[in-house]
Amino acid sequence: MVKNYKEGSSQKLLPMVSVCTPTFNRRPFIPIMFECFRNQDYPKNRIEWIIVDDGTDKIKDLIENSKIPQIRYFELDKKLSLGAKRNYMHDQVKGDIIVYMDDDDYYPPERISHAVERLESNPKALCAGASEIYIFFKHIQKMIQCGPYGPNHATAGTFAFRKELLKITRYEDHAAVAEERAFLKDYTIPFVQLDPMKAILVFSHEHNTFDKRKMLDNPHPDFFKESPKTVDMFIRTKIENRVKSFFMKEIDALLDAYEPGLPKMKPDVLKQIKEIEKEREDMIREEMAKQQAMGAITLQRPGEQPIQLSNQEVVEIVNQQQEQIKQLTNKTKEADVIITTLQKQLIEKTKEIINLKKQIKAKEEQGGTSTMTRIPIVELSKSDPEIIINLST
């Protein structure tokens, strides 16, 4: 938690924070959104809350009844794409740090304070967020971990960034979903990761703009996997019991009775989702066609039936062969060293033999006699030979 300095003290004040929330026909969620804000442990006198509402069922009445003085509420008559709406929010901010809090997710009490602390302790980072997030699927009672995807990646619902970032980037005005990539300039913006337990908990529900249950159809094992974490590990305090009850017990009946919040009320979003899904399907088909064009890889061992290999099996075999080659290369180098040493030893012993022969010849010329002479050779190892030369006359 960020240290709470009293306003007017000689010590430096905490940064002014602009919380930003875009909303469209989410009336059932708004009271709980208010609760998540009230529970924030960051000083309220250092926060403004900008809510931009372009829905057909405006929530002005709920805003007024909330008695939350930090709210600055903007009604828009024309529906904007999510990208354009986020840009509009940015034009209204007065704070030094901008923190996103979406209208249908759970945010822990340290959501703001943790984000501010991470940015303050990493001065080179312009943006913070969580690339690893958790989604609770109530219909199967499972917690799913999504990500992490990379050190400079995060989902927009977890963003917190310095206002100065807006001098170099903005959202694409036409973006209705998956708006993060362009804003983060293909994930090249200087970034710091947040603790996912202090950032957000997403609940899959019927009014999700993107039906998160589709993520369960073809999950990627590296980025989408079941987690042992529980809802109680995120929503921990007694003051949040009402929030927990809403997401775990009340939400389904409330959404069933609220037609304005159905995804069909957002045709621009549905259109873009279909375009993205088609693009992904085309990429998958193209990749499959490439693999088929390359043909199947078959392994044929002597005396055995041919075996068709998967890409993973091919990679494993190649890795094994590379390791074997490495081991053989090392053994070859060791053998080269031994051969070089033996060659040097042989040259030295040859020289000794020549000298001995000269000595023997000299003795013979002097009338001396010789018998068998043993020439010792210093052994390099147990396997090195001892050479015996018969020089008898």
Automatic annotation (TrEMBL):
<feature type="coiled-coil region">
    <location>
        <begin position="266"/>
        <end position="366"/>
    </location>
</feature>
<dbReference type="InterPro" id="IPR001173">
    <property type="entry name" value="Glyco_trans_2-like"/>
</dbReference>
<feature type="domain" description="Glycosyltransferase 2-like">
    <location>
        <begin position="18"/>
        <end position="131"/>
    </location>
</feature>
<keyword id="KW-0175">Coiled coil</keyword>
<dbReference type="InterPro" id="IPR029044">
    <property type="entry name" value="Nucleotide-diphossugar_trans"/>
</dbReference>
<protein>
    <recommendedName>
        <fullName>Glycosyltransferase 2-like domain-containing protein</fullName>
    </recommendedName>
</protein>
<dbReference type="Pfam" id="PF00535">
    <property type="entry name" value="Glycos_transf_2"/>
</dbReference>
